């Protein structure tokens, strides 16, 4: 990995849901702002499937802007002048944290010998980082999509360590439809001969075709029908009529191909398999005899559950399910559904209603916690 | 449903009925004006439920803990005795099953405060008598086909339903022309004639009678 990344190496054994003990653990992470003397102003931000720790400030590896630059920074809603913001690459990822592309103890890339991980394992790794930073209790844990699953896992497994929780465009369990889309993506990767049974690093190949098809399929789920129609419609790409062939006649085809080809430059194919698997395995209630509200009874902080009306990947109904369970558990919860036609990706975009809700929630939580 | 007016006579009475530091659930909390005042003036621990997404969003942006929900369906989610006081201001007449709503409130909190427009008010009666049309008054401003109100009642009607739902009446306060009178210990024919709106403070007595 490149030296532009800040990496913490911990020689602890991280116990995983699968029963394996993972060691040594490396965590790629970034922080912004200053931790106050009482260590009470830390905000942990959890990234989504293909996100990374560069929530603010450009990514030095990809050169891309930060994924939440519109929300995190000095004077922004998640104000780095006020809060100590932490974001780490998830376990299984490929931006500095241990993942299948990392080198194992034998000096070879793990590939498929990397243990299968879960959302709870990702949170265990984050908790190890938070311990290392000397922080007992996080002011807030915030995340969208898979990041929201980590937020839920935090308050279920470490309720005393979180003051305010904000799961955004997320779910307490992965739906059959979501598992299905992930399986399509994984099969695309594994069908690419360059995948080499997962050993492509050793063989010197890269399953770019498979991974890019996986990304294309996933990308559709991030957008709404209305947004696709508005952006592309049936418009043709650099031509006036269809070419009676299988080139990218339509703009939407060209766009998806571009998204796919760009993705393979920054993401590891095996990481994609492992992280999608972790999401598929996520069912928070399963650890609580099937009663989701029992997952939240020990949490005494505040929660704000946000969803987007046109998100069919993690639809508002999934968020309502979380909210209802929290009400039953007696959690101080607010729930906010943003009216938008931008689909799942709306959580990354400039959505004034969403930003107002976050500002209101954070301000009230800060007042509660005496910040 | 609650509206945005910042000084509503029923709000004043509700605020007076809430002790310092009480846990309050406002069912049909609109844009959160009452919740905010309860928090500021009574140091109350406040939560809200509101049907309209716009109302919920306005509340959350103010830092209030409010969820989207339908009084008819979602009160069942709240655990027994999870609040000291459950407030229902200008909402009961818009619910589909007022009796079910009252019984849920009875289960959730030991005390309930309900404000409602009174169909027994003399102007309403006179209007119906003289014009032969559904009354449109200051308290009932929408015509019959536009109103969100499904279950209009008089003070005497509501008094019956509250008792049937297991509540004792602590007080009832008359509001007319936007002004509140001194609270009364019981509903009466006179109050029924002269209240445009009323606020009932109810406390849990026995179990619902049916």
What's the helix and strand layout?
The complex is a heterodimer of chains A (371) and B (210).
Chain A (H helix, E strand, L loop, with lengths): L6 E4 L3 E2 L5 E2 L2 E8 L9 E5 L25 E2 L4 E2 L4 E5 L30 H14 L5 E7 L1 H12 L4 E7 L7 H16 L8 H4 L4 H15 L2 H7 L19 H16 L2 H13 L10 H5 L5 E7 L7 H13 L3 E7 L13 H17 L3
Parallel strand pairs in A: 5-8, 5-9, 6-7, 9-10, 10-11, 11-12
Antiparallel strand pairs in A: 1-4, 2-3, 4-8
Helix pairs in contact in A: 1-2, 3-5, 3-8, 5-7
Chain B lengths: L8 H9 L5 E5 L5 H10 L2 E6 L2 H9 L4 E3 L2 H4 L8 E7 L8 H11 E9 L4 H10 L23 H10 L2 E10 L2 E2 L8 H6 L2 E8 L6
Parallel strand pairs in B: 1-2, 1-4, 2-3, 4-5
Antiparallel strand pairs in B: 5-8, 6-7, 6-8
Fold and architecture overview:
- The complex is a heterodimer of chains A (371) and B (210).
- Chain A folds into 2 domains: 7-175 and 283-368, Rossmann fold (3-Layer(aba) Sandwich); 178-277, Orthogonal Bundle (Rna Polymerase Sigma Factor, Chain: A).
- In chain A, 36% of the residues lie in helices and 16% in strands.
- Chain A has 11 helices and 12 strands.
- An 8-stranded mixed β-sheet of chain A has the order 1-4-8-5-9-10-11-12, sandwiched between helices. Chain A has a two-stranded antiparallel ribbon with strand order 2-3.
- The relative contact order of chain A is 0.14.
- The mean pLDDT of chain A is 95.
- Chain B is α/β, with parallel strands linked by helices.
- Chain B contains 8 helices and 8 strands; from the N terminus they run αβαβαβαβαβααββαβ.
- In chain B, strands 3-2-1-4-5-8-6-7 form an 8-stranded mixed β-sheet.
- At the A-B interface, helix 10, strand 12 and helix 11 of A face helix 3 and strand 3 of B.
Share of helical residues of chain A: 25-40%
- CATH topology category name of chain B: Rossmann fold
Order of strands side by side in the largest beta sheet of chain A? 1-4-8-5-9-10-11-12
- Total number of helices of chain B: 8
- Spatial order of the strands forming the largest sheet of chain B: 3-2-1-4-5-8-6-7
Low-pLDDT windows of residues of chain A: none
Tell the overall outline of chain A: globular
The total strand number of chain A stands at: 12
Largest sheet of chain B: 8 strands, mixed
CATH homologous superfamily designation of chain B: Vaccinia Virus protein VP39
Secondary structure class of chain B reads alpha/beta
Strand content of chain B: 15-25%
The number of distinct structural domains of chain A comes to: 2
Overall geometric form of chain B: globular
